[in-house]
Amino acid sequence: MTDGVHLGSGKVRELYALEGDRLVLVASDRISTFDVVLPTGIPDKGRVLTGLAAFWFARTRSICPNHLLAVRPDGRSTECRRLDMLPIECVVRGYLAGSAVKDYRTTGQVCGHPLPAGLAESDRLPEPIFTPATKAQTGHDENITREQAAGIVGAERLAEIERLSLALYRFAADYALGRGIIIADTKFEFGLDGDQLVLGDEALTPDSSRFWPADQYAPGKAQPSFDKQFVRDFCEKTGWDKTPPGPELPPAVVAGTRARYVEAFERLTGIPFADYLADPSVVLR
Ligand code: Q0N
User: Could you tell which of 88, 192, 201 is best to mutate to test the pocket of ligand 1, judged by most ligand atoms within 8 Å of the CB?
Assistant: First the structure.
């Protein structure tokens, strides 16, 4: 079997072991919203995410080594170095969104970072903050304090992944803003190859980050999602109670959403998506 032994599934991705400490990560076209995977896929979503992650991996090598070895000709799978993953999610937030809004409103802090008074939902933070979380097998990831994170990976390792996470986020957020996309927050996963710290998983994609259209940015309320807003709007309109199974998506919602993924790819990479389909290695050059 070319894709080796199945090691595990995420909501929308699969992982297989190859010979020689290598893995294959396969991104499907499945889409989740409100934490539920919908029965309808978005054609080429897996290719867009794989291409984007590979694009960022190629451009952030000088900040941090990563697990990417090759993008396969199918455009949706990558060969990766097998790592010993650290059991912590490295979240960086540049804007006040998601669970941080509630934490800020109740405590004035987010994961132990005191923030200035008077911030509104979706405001840009004075500086990006590192807010680690634990990987929950099911359901939501749980925010943890720096002390808890240090207890899990060690204080020195924590300092190193915090520094790298912030540097990766700053690089990508600056780059994306210049192309009309706000990366409000993002999640990294690191692993060890021996004693070398290596960036793993998929990074800086719309599935691992909040992408907002910069031209519609208006703090004081929740922002539209660059990629999933049509899906969310449709799901809200159906009156679905957000428990599985989710609704089937109509063709217009599928087409509109696919176009948004392709637009994110083309804006960020500057590469026509058709060129990626013809030869996925274009994102590495
Ligand atoms: C690994 N996960 C969590 C795929 C992603 N390079 C690696 N070496 C060893 N293990 C992993 C990686 C990576 N990346 C990462 N699980 C194992 C996320 N998974 C969820 C399922 O889909």
Answer: 201
